[in-house]
Specification:
Helices cover 16% and strands 42% of the residues. A hairpin with a 5-residue loop joins strand 18 (250-259) and strand 19 (265-275). The protein folds into three domains: 24-175, Calycin beta-barrel core domain (Lipocalin, Beta Barrel); 182-293 and 338-364, Type IV secretion system, VirB10/TraB/TrbI (Lipocalin), CATH 2.40.128; 297-334. The chain contains four helices and 24 strands. The chain has 365 residues and is an alpha+beta fold. The N and C termini lie far apart (72 Å). Helix 3 (297-316) packs antiparallel against helix 4. It is elongated.
Length: 365
């Protein structure tokens, strides 16, 4: 009798578990999924997503297999106990941690390889479970990109499961201006940037390339036109070392092109407006000068000569010793250079546009 009751209790418990696992189908991403490029927002993403995704799921993990455009297949898993999973895709190493937020799955992935960046994904199913949306946020240094991947269950059509109308307001696609609109960033606009490679008057030469990223978004009429993280390339137009005895180093920089995160590029001929910790800036010429010597060049010569004379007295008593010491002091000054210009990686630099930049609404989608 006891055994029969126990068996019935076990059976009832098992029956109770089944509906519990199926109680939230919104958390079950299992199936074969096909990317819908028309409903997705891929323009802001530097890497194209895989067009086919297959997902299987159990109590412990979500297992994924993606097929790339070239036929390569990549497999990985997200643990559902918030532990870290490590895997490799091509030449990059991924470390992912996933957690639930209601019916949405949040995945945070640290990517290391030729470049290091962070990817934050938010997975969510549509009410009829025919559409899988992945909101993607990519952070690469100071650059932040947002995109939306819309996958449809294999065999479903766009008409059967429209998803683009439900795009979140936070994505740039929602706020994009009409394709026929013309947006003008006027000449004189100040664009703050961060230097990605070091430049200085001692090691840099005319024609050397410089690379920067915009550090704040530029908005017009309530819409972002130049997002933070846009790429700027420039050229060292001239690098002059400080002269001997007098003079200071001078660095002439020219900015040549601006590329938005979606790949739209504009040619520039812009100049430096300001630079942190780099001495004086001549906005008209785009010139950065080294710090001036507060004591003056004549004082430097006098101090150097006086110090040499004193050393001559100690070494050679009077007369000839003093003369030799003064000459040595003067030589030390003559062979030393004045202050140069050094702009380390990470230096804040401001660009002033020399002319208007024009964009169409389509280019800013």
């Amino acid at each position: 009798m006891f055994r029969s009751s126990f068996a019935v209790a076990i059976a009832l418990a098992c029956c109770a578990v089944i509906p519990l696992r199926a109680a939230d189908p919104g958390r079950d991403f299992s199936g074969k999924w096909v990317l819908d490029p028309q409903a997705s927002n891929l323009r802001a993403l530097s890497a194209q997503p895989d067009p086919f995704l297959e997902v299987t799921q159990d109590d412990d993990a979500i297992h994924c297999a993606a097929t790339a455009a070239d036929g390569a297949i990549w497999r990985w898993s997200y643990a559902l106990d918030r532990s870290e999973r490590k895997y490799h895709v091509r030449n990059e190493t991924m470390n992912s941690v996933a957690k639930w937020e209601g019916a949405a799955l949040l995945v945070n992935t640290l990517v290391s390889g030729p470049r290091d960046y962070t990817v934050m994904d938010r997975w969510r199913l549509s009410g009829d479970r025919t559409v899988l949306k992945v909101e993607r946020h990519v952070m690469n240094g100071t650059a932040e990109l947002e995109g939306l991947l819309v996958y449809r269950r294999e065999g479903q059509t766009a008409a059967a499961a429209p998803a683009a109308a439900n795009e979140p307001q936070s994505l740039a696609r929602r706020a994009a201006p009409p394709a026929t609109a013309r947006i003008t960033v006027p000449a004189g606009t100040h664009i703050p940037m961060v230097l990605l490679n070091a430049v200085d008057t001692k090691h840099s030469h005319e024609g050397d390339r410089i690379y920067l990223k915009t550090s704040v978004p530029i908005a017009l009429d309530g819409r972002i036109v130049i997002p933070r993280g846009s790429s700027v390339t420039g050229t060292v137009a001239e690098a002059k070392q400080a002269g001997r005895v007098k003079g200071k180093g001078e660095l002439f920089l020219r900015f040549d092109s601006l590329t938005l995160p979606n790949g739209v590029t504009r040619d520039l001929r812009s100049r430096v407006g300001s630079s942190d910790g780099a001495g004086t800036v001549d906005r008209k010429e785009g010139k950065i000068g080294g710090e001036s010597d507060p004591k003056g060049d004549a004082t430097k010569v006098a101090i150097g000569t006086g110090a040499g004379t004193a050393a001559g007295h100690v070494a050679g008593h009077t007369g000839m010793g003093a003369g030799l010491g003064a000459a040595a002091g003067l030589a030390a000054v003559l062979f030393s250079r004045g202050p140069g210009v050094v702009l380390p990686k990470g230096t804040s630099v401001e660009m002033i546009l020399d002319r208007d930049l024009f964009f169409s609404g389509e280019e800013l989608r």
